[in-house]
Amino acid sequence: MQRKAIGLLSGGLDSTLAVKVLLEQGIAVEALNFTSPFCTCTGKNAGCKSEAVRVAEEFKIPIKVMHKGADYLEIVRNPKHGYGKGLNPCIDCRIFLLKKAKEYMEEIGADFVFTGEVLGQRPMSQRRDTLRVIERESGLEGLLLRPLSAKHFSPTIPEQEGWVDREKLLSIQGRSRKEQMDLAEELDVKNYPCPAGGCLLTELSFVPKIRDVFDHTDGLNMRDFRLLKLGRHFRIGDRTKVILGRNEGENEMLERSVQAGEATLHWLDGMSPLAAVMGESSEELLVLTGRLLLRYAKIEPGTAARIAVNCDGAERELTVEGPLDEEEAKSLMVA
After folding, report:
1. 21 Cβ partners below 8 Å, 6+ apart?
2. Each residue of 223-247: b (16+ CB within 10 Å) or e?
3. Structural domains in the chain plus CATH codes
4. For residues 87 and 75, what is the distance between their CA atoms, to the nearest angstrom?
5. Does residue 333 come out as left (phi exceeding 0), alpha (psi in the -120 to 50 range) or beta?
6. What is the tens place of the pLDDT at every residue in 40-50?
7. Alpha-carbon span 280 to 219, nearest angstrom
8. Which of 52, 64, 150, 331 could disulfide-link to 169, CB 3.0 to 4.6 Å?
């Protein structure tokens, strides 16, 4: 009887190798990929999702892509196991993903779950003690196989039952990727991306933007987090944020992202960024936004300017008395 397994596939080197190792043992593998607004991968035809889909197509295995939703954002806001160096709740994140994988495993009648995790590779989530916590709290005790480091752990149920051959599993550990690259050559795995992925939650320069959303939003909205990668961000009110586009592409994306009751502003008599006002707005805040966007336009200080305000498909004109000065604008910017 052929056994079936669910593999977490990011599209990176480790998870790709883990899939290949189990395919070599005759396991029927189905891949599971998760998308996140915090992934550093960008571009329409690049990034984690498309790499995972490409790997799945190359290996001729099914893949299901799941989107991390509002429940995931709540974990980021208040993780049980704390943060790493930034706002990265790595342990809680792995538990979240593996709980979803367990649900999917049961839904399709698979026998176990596996990942590309390597003992000691990541300082927070891949220590021996935290790997045990993750396995236990995900509900996958005995059914979570880590093929690349399996020989550093006690045999799992798939190994004990002979579903997989433990002797053909690996004993990789540590942060070096040399063994994985050698294994990739041995298994004829080519065209893999940069071995290490990236998460904006670990980037200290990005943390203030995320905290700002948490501090000024009651109901979490995935849109607000996706937009963190775009433009210049300014906090002009407790429930009001302005994002200024930095180029035509960002202006277009911001214009498409505003929701009912929100506004976009631009200078009528010259070139300026598009300003998207997210959240609550008042006439006073719209005037402030107009002066803010003029700070990034070619206009003389103190010059009155006509600003177009678009909200819910209706456009009106607003006159503002010149741009904010540099210090005023800087005081509103979300670092």
Report:
1. 147, 148, 168, 169, 170, 187
2. ebbebbbbbbbbbbbeebbbbbbee
3. 4-200 (3.40.50.620), 230-332 (no CATH)
4. 11
5. beta
6. 765 444 557 78
7. 14
8. 150
Helices and strands in the chain, H and E counts: 12, 11
Strands 28-35 and 4-8: parallel
The residues with which 64 forms a beta bridge, in sequence order, are 32
pLDDT at 47: 57
* CA pair distance 43, 299, nearest whole angstrom: 33
Beta carbons within 8 Å of 106's beta carbon, 6+ residues apart: none
Per-residue confidence band for 111, with pLDDT thresholds at 50, 70 and 90: very high
The DSSP secondary-structure symbol of 130 reads H
Helix, strand, or coil (residue 135) = helix
Strand 304-311 and strand 144-145: the pairing is unpaired
Give the strand pairing for 263-267 and 304-311. antiparallel
pTM value is 0.88
Q: How far apart, in whole angstroms, are the C-alpha atoms of residue 57 and residue 108?
A: 20
